[in-house]
Design goal:
It is built from 28 helices and 34 strands. The longest helix is centred in the middle third of the chain and has 21 residues. Helix content is about 40%, strand content about 20%. Strand 20 and strand 21 form a beta hairpin. The strands form eight sheets. It has an eight-stranded mixed β-sheet, with no helix packed on it. A five-stranded mixed β-sheet has the order 17-18-19-21-20, with helices on one face. It has a five-stranded mixed β-sheet with strand order 29-32-26-25-34, with no helix packed on it. The structure holds ligand BES and zinc ion. Zinc ion binds next to helix 3.
Amino acid sequence: MSPPRDDGHVHLADYVPPAWRILHADLAFDLDPDATEVRARLVLEPDPDQPGQPLVLDGEELTLLSVAIDGRGLDAGRYTYDGRALRIEGLPGACELETRVRIHPAGNTRLEGLYTSGRLLLTQCEAEGFRRITFFADRPDVMPRWRITLRAARERYPVLLANGNPVARRELDDGRHESVWENPHPTPCYLFAIAAGELDRVTHSVRTAEGRQVELNVWADPADVARCEYALGAVERSLRWDERRFGRGYDLDVFNVVAAQDFTMGAMENKGLNIFNARYILADEATATDADFLAIESVVAHEYLHNWSGNRVTLRDWFQLSLKEGLTVFRDSEFSADLHSRAIKRIEAVRVLRGRQFAEDAGALAHPVRPDRYREISNFYTLTIYEKGAEVIRVLHTLLGEDVFRAGMDRYFADNDGRAATLEDFLAAHAAASGRDLSQFARWFSQAGTPELTITEDFNAATGDYTVTVDQHVPPTPGQPDKQPLVLPLRFALYDAAGAAITAAPETDAAINGAMVELVAARHALRWRGLRAKPLAAFNQGFAAPVKLRFAQSPAELARSVRVERDPVHRWDGLQRLATRAILSRDADAADALEAALADLLTDAAADPAFVAECLVLPDFDTLADAVDAVDPGALLDARDALLDRLARVLAAPLQARYDAFAEAAGQGLDGAAMAARALRNACLAWLARVDASGRLAQRQFDTARSMTERGAALRCLLHFGAPGAPAALAAFREQFAADPLVTDKWIGFVVTRPDIAACDDVEALLASSWWKPANPNRVRAVLGNFQRGNPRAFHRADGAGFRLVAERLPALDATNPQVAARLLGGFEGWRRLAGPLRAQARAILDGLDGRLVSPDCRDLLARLRDS
Ligand code: BES
Ligand code: ZN
């Protein structure tokens, strides 16, 4: 890493290795919410290639108490501390530095560094929070081994946790006690963690494939510990899966997970001590939905899987962020696909990509999977780093196949274990294992923007020649006007008039691998000869190429493809395309074809209910908005509602029949069949409720609900479609769960996403109520995040009231927690694509924020939003 240039940006090209290495870090904490003292002993060694450099350590908001070298205190004249860095000149060479500092956890509202959540003391260090705990080289390529001593009052902090293995405990005088931890693996400071307080646990001991006995613990507030069992099971499933699928074992004697109510992100993979937002731990069927259970399992897996992809092999610098995040999202999505339904998992991923990542890649904040500069790294934990990054790994997996990919991963882990790696190291391992040249593939990391594939077909009835031309184009993005072609694996299938697959391979200048063509040039042609009639073509099955496909098929062709295609993702996609056509082009044939296809699906008793449920969810606002040039949210949502209302009326009988048929199966339990039954019933209910003014069905489901999955969906329908029973149901729900902040967040979410511009008043009322807790990130997301992202109608209100609701809170939120504020500010990323007057509203609001946001996070985003 290197300091920022004059342009205020840190640049990838400026990377220099650390001038000083830290071989060992011995930290001792005297914990107290008002004044914690941190003593750090660091064993230092200069880089032999950079001798004579001053020692410069990061440190922010630290009260410096003392500095010593090799046991001798330094006079104030021997060092400087300017509030950002401690600088010591003229060190002889290898030495031991000891610093003592004081910090103030209870005053830390940013939730970075050491902070309090209720009566707990917790840390969050990624990306650059460790510098708020003690003086250190706060960069991921400095990887000492650690010894951590925690001391605190025994009554108030009976449990003291840190990274690694516990090695000693003892009682101290005056009611304090001490706990010592050792982390023998070279670990960067962003993975440092401690947790202290009154915690209870669920625990389970497992023996790993390598024969290590490991204690798995999930810790929470004693009142919540009964809801930790599911997360504990998910830890064990993750451990077993990484052994099986990637041959990766766990490497400490304990694996601790702690649930926290105040946490900015979802969860954090600290070595041996993951810290989680409580929403990704606590669950039982009365308070959590099926979607919550699945999210918990996948987040637990994600953080667990980082132990290899991120921790054992870490990052050279933050530009490589996707090397841990994209790779780990790929790994956790494979975990979920292996344990549950691969098709459903893929459909969900495609929805997120299309609805959210494509929009990011087309908006003001577009950036490559590996950015080449940043002002504030916190702003780069984006859908592009995560989801597109995972897609790029998936492309590699598709090109290489499972076995060669696995060999490449084995090599990557072996060659880089205990090291700080780059994306080049990752590609080098895969190039070596596969014998392939991956230099063109690397463009996926450096080029922003979603590739567009345009397919044109030509059938010559006289010769029977069927020719397909595939053009690829990556659109310009901020700072990147010109793009080069990417390597894209495109799956294809042709069907004859009877629906049978045509298996003949096409003639082409591109490499063919079974039913997949590897596109490498801006244009390729595929030709089949001697066909009797124009075939029905299907491209990009499984969404193996994460692209926008432009292939002008008629509604009849799309409908046929839904019928004959075997790949469920492609069948689902055919329905999505029909719906998009029906909504955006008001194409009556598309609407008719969609209606017929859905009727078929609903009456097909053999169809997988989970799949049918997915098919019933039509493209959302974000996905539709991405497909038009100027977004008029009201008109777009009106068109969507009109289609949904019509289909709901026509399909009411089969929807009701499915709803009734699965009543029994939907009862309780987390097995796939019960979850699928609930998913299908709730999808049917959402359609039926739109055309049932009495709200009878939703009311009955609410009154007789057997789980939060049933109760929540029913309440949502009552509120969103204005049923007479809505206010009473809301009040009952609110009362029942008033003591549970996570369930409270749920009803708040339903209220603020009511698809009516009057929802702005409800948000206003919440902001004025005692439910509004701006210091709690979950609550801010529940009120404002859900409103902004989940209520496109009210957020985009023509008078700008929706924008103002969010914008007016930003200065205060920014002063409290810059990362939370920056996320909300990022919700304006699509403003330039809005039609006329609304765009002017958005611009005025962004201009009005200038000078009122103080954090580097928000200032960076605001500049990018306004400059674009
Ligand atoms: N390393 C991140 C957590 C993180 C993100 C810390 C940003 C600091 C800044 C963690 O592994 C992660 O990616 N968490 C996700 C959830 C995950 C399942 C995608 C999160 O917190 O949203
Ligand atoms: Zn992660």
